[in-house]
Specification:
Structural class: mainly alpha
Radius of gyration: 28 Å
Strand content: under 5%
Order of helices and strands: HHHH
Helix content: over 70%
Number of domains: 1
Shape: rod-shaped
Largest sheet: none
Amino acid sequence: MSIAESLRYRFKEPDRRRTVRLIKPGVQLKLAGYLLIITFFFGLVVGLNSWAAYGRLLEVGLESAPTDLRLDIAEQTRNYLYSSAALVACYVFVVLTFSIGYLHSLLGPTVAIERFLHKLRKGDYSARLMLRDEDVVFAEVATQLNELAAQIEKTNRISPRAS
């Protein structure tokens, strides 16, 4: 099986629950992207504000500073930049993880609802929508869809369609 066929097989709509964490990657990653863009611009504003406040002081102060002090400041600045880069990388990881996880919990039930509706369209009126206990946002919708399926099943048993 080629890689392309393997990927198509992996992402096709299975009858069982998906094992892929990204249900709707475009939607899940879009929120993370927006959060990161907002954070970047906020960080840029904070950085520009800091530079406006302390940049000139640093420039003027370093000109007259002894060599040892300048080297010490350069080393401290380098360490600060490395630790800041590590913190930014951790922040990006946390934003991606939490936004993907949160949206997974919101979008997960929609996949179950789509499968349920697909079964109803195929004529399987005995199908029922089963959601996880933590999917409370869609609990009422699931109840109403199950009642609708039960009514259709009951109607179909009483007067089956003429073939």
